[in-house]
Amino acid sequence: MGDVRSLEQPDGYLTHYRLWGPPTGEDVVVMLHGGMSHSGWQAPLGIRIGQLPATAFVAVDLRGSGLNAQRGHIPSADLAVTDISRLLRHLKADYRRVHLAGWCFGAQVATVAAADLVNEHVIADLIMVAPGFFFSERYNDVLDRSVDSALAVVEELGLTPEPTRAYISIPLRSSDFTDRPYWLEFIDNDPLRLVRVTAGTIDAWGEIAVRSEKEFRRIGRLPTLAIFGKRDKLVDNDRVRTFLGNHPDVRVHELDTGHAIHFDDADRLSGLITAFIGRGAAAEPRPTQPRA
Hints:
By secondary structure, the chain is an alpha/beta fold. The protein has a single domain, classed as 3-Layer(aba) Sandwich (Rossmann fold). It has nine helices and ten strands. It has helices spanning 43-49, 77-92, 105-117, 137-157, 181-188, 199-215, 237-244, 261-264, 266-283, and strands at 3-8, 14-20, 25-32, 55-60, 95-103, 125-129, 168-169, 196-197, 224-229, 250-255. An eight-stranded mixed β-sheet has the order 1-2-4-3-5-6-9-10, with helices on both faces. Helix 1 links the parallel strand 3 (25-32) and strand 4 (55-60). It is globular. The N and C termini lie far apart (48 Å).
């Protein structure tokens, strides 16, 4: 499941991430996960991309997820994003090119971080897998009902939950992600997946969603790759494609998969990603060798 490492944030919080491939090199793909999942879900990509020469794959646990402390709790949207920005600057010291990627909600976090860093030339490009800018009506409806139900119970009982107490259920099933039996079992038995979150996390998710739509235009001409799952049950693919179509340098692909593209077709997904980052490397000027 990758080499687990961590970066201490200014407030003492440890951001954990998994590394496949060399600790230094030419390229590193940094992948951010979705709301319910964690870095371990990206192992199918990490194994494949980490085997390439001078290329590494890093899967990050967002604040409150995976191996990180206070699971289910994000104190603020700003912290969630600045954690990633600091990690990207940290990795830039070890790799020539940093390729920022995000799956589902992770694509929204990646977009905001990319906009913040675009003038620092920290990242080479942006990769979005099943980008969750706009979700299906069904998912929006069940999430709203889950939040409303939890808040109604709290109000009825006159309770004031601790800010870090996760009590709002995430209304997702394993079949929302994939139809592969192995991965269905993996999700159902995953002890690190988020089952409940705090009210602060719901607020942070909403703020990041709004910011990502506004910040997307700030990434300028940053090369962008978007990959959709044709059978995605959660993302409104048509609406997201229209939204991304305003970008001057976006490449769009669609695979015959569900929402968890990395579970359903990791080979083709890793191939699209490596071809995309390789195109950027080929375009870079090579240093000239002095004549004898």
